[in-house]
Amino acid sequence: MPGVRGAGPVALVAVLAAVLSGCGSVQERADAASAAALGFRETLRTTHGARGCAALAPGTREELEQNAELPCARALSDAGLPAADTADAVRVVDVYGRQARVVTDHDTLFLSSFPGGWKITATGCTERPDLPYQCLIKGG
């Protein structure tokens, strides 16, 4: 079968490109990251701690619980995150492969793409000139 032999490497490159890019277009990934960030912010406004904890990446949730020495829902409510309100809107979204930064009116959040969707890896982040962001909640 002519052409079949050459299709293997081409198909492999296409699959690797999709995996490395996080699948989906940049706009689709940006929209999904924005929705995840706003959904998390909504859980803060409505005090649904369990849903907020489910939105955290596993390492972030674990570090939050360890640092606070409290269950996640309680630690999340005690973390001092910026207040969320119904007018909280996304101002900027940057997507880099499987990572994203979402800046809302009241917070800056960092996310990673997991098999089940976007998860919060850091929140309550403040930009510092010439230094990394300082975040109230972050994973290790």
Backbone shape: globular
Percent helix among the residues?
Answer: 40-55%
Amount of beta strand: 25-35%
Main sheet characteristics? 5 strands, antiparallel
What's the CATH class, please? Alpha Beta
Short description:
The protein is of the alpha+beta class and 140 residues long. Helix content is 44%, strand content 29%.
Give structural notes.
The chain has 140 residues and is of the alpha+beta class. The chain has a single domain, classed as Nuclear Transport Factor 2, Chain: A. Helices cover 44% and strands 29% of the residues. It has five helices and five strands; from the N terminus they run H-H-H-H-H-E-E-E-E-E. It has a five-stranded antiparallel β-sheet. Strand 2 and strand 3 form a beta hairpin. The protein is globular. The N and C termini lie far apart (51 Å).
